[in-house]
Amino acid sequence: MTAKALRAMGLGKLIACVLVMWLLVVLMISGPLFHSSEPDEQVLARLTRAVGELESLKQQNEELRSLLNSIREPSKKEEHSSARQQQHTVCEPSEEYEVRRRRVADGVQELWFYARAQLKKLLPNLKKEDHANLQRIIDDLAVHRRTIQLDLEEMRRADGYDSWRQTESRALTELVQSRLSKLQHPTDCSKAPKLVCSLNKGCGYGCQVHHATYCLITAYATQRTLILHSKGWRYSSAGWETVFQPVSNSCTQVGNQRAVPWSANVAGAPVVELPIIDNVQPRPAFLPLAVPAELASRLTRLHGQPALWWVSQVLGFLLRPQPSLQRYLDQAAHDMGFRGPVVGVHVRRTDKVGTEADFHGLEEYMEYVHDFFERLALKGGPPPTRRVYLATDDPKLLSEAKTKYPDYHFFGDSRIANTASLGQRYSSESLRGVLLDIHMLSRCDYLVCTFSSQVCRLAYEMMQLSYVDAADRFRSLDDIYYFGGQKPHNQVAIYNHTARSADEIDMRVGDTLGIAGNHWDGFSKGVNRRTGHSGLYPAFKAVEKVDVVPFPVQ
Question: Where is the SH3 domain (predicted)?
Answer without folding.
Answer: 486-547
